[in-house]
Specification:
It is a single chain. The chain is of the alpha/beta class. The protein is 34% helix and 20% strand. The protein contains nine helices and nine strands. The strands form two sheets. Strands 1-4-3-2-5-6 form a six-stranded parallel sheet, with helices on both faces. The chain has a three-stranded antiparallel sheet with strand order 7-8-9, with helices on one face. Strand 8 and strand 9 form a beta hairpin. Helix 1 packs parallel to helix 3. The termini are far apart.
Length: 269
Amino acid sequence: MKETNVLTDLDRPCAFVPTMGALHAGHQSLIRRAREFCDEVVVSVFVNPLQFEDKDDLAKYPKTPEIDAQLASEAGATILWRPDYEIIYPDQIQLLTSGELGKKFEGVHRPGHFDGVLTVVNRLFELVRPRYAIFGEKDFQQLFLITKMAAQLHPEIEIVPAPTIREASGLAMSSRNVRLNPESRQAAEIISRTLRMAATEDNVERARFRLQEISSEPEFTLDYAEIIDEDTFEIATEESVRRRAIVAGWIDGVRLIDNMAMKSALVRA
């Protein structure tokens, strides 16, 4: 695997896995998925300041460059690209807008976050010019917005979703999990446990009711818990065929997000 700060022109199609570093098994699953599409797999590590509304959160974001290199190589990356800020943003930044959806759910609690995400992903796409780009389903609102942006600005790139990888406890893998102590990790199990309970219901209102069980964990401060329509990202109704529960909140100063597909509605004749 080649490690570089400057990405030269690639002479063959590539699959791309953008990351902010602090790699873990979840990232490795994205890289392995990328290898299914191309022999050339580019993994980027760039902590994008535009998507952090809290400077303290940006400062605390974990950095593990040696581990990143090892895990990326093991998973099959061929290029590990660590661009400098000046490469990504050489001139005055022109923010992309995430629109009204970018102001909902995550956007309510992280103003401007998705504008920053779309701006950096667009720049990464311009520089890498991949044939495929792999994104995890854990950040489902992000995946939805990036897919929409790519269809408009980069129709030549296929966005490939990859399933959420979980720890043995059910907790969705995240670079932020390293900041959880053992007690907080145990409290965080309420998230996946509640999602699994809600997923057993084929009625939206019953699933929504089950989802509120997440508030029973006193250590978890809930930001939102909702059932959405996967095709529109609007609040799900009984008419919604593809439904997904989305959850976000805080435990011990660490923000956690998760989601899970719900039972699909019966297709009406």
